[in-house]
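PROTEIN SPECIFICATION:
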Amino acid sequence: MDYSNLLACCPGYGKDDRDKAPQEFCGHHKKDKELPISPLNEDCSTYFRYSASGEILYSLESSKQLPAQETIAILGLNHPILQSAREEAIDGILQDIDSFSNEDLIKLMTSYDRPDSTGKLQEFCSAIVYTLKQYLGSA
């Protein structure tokens, strides 16, 4: 997870709501609370898991569960707008997944795990990479 990309990926508005009042997630939901897990931590993504329905879950590692739960709550990361958008991104990547070889899946996962030519990560890349890793592990 790249801190400079974090603000762009979660500005506090839904895609179709940019001119409306702030939604109840991300920075607007956080207000002045401190985050237990900093996006600057290299292992930030290891605190979270994702369901196929787009829900962000805490890690199975007991030492990471409470900080992850608190971060999810502080940022409102399971708000219906975010959860639905995550689910849509996951569904989109899984559409033709059965036709991919493991090598193709690794290439796809690597492409989502790296910034594009403008230095930005793709929307919901962490959820997609997590899902692809799970799929590879079960394939």
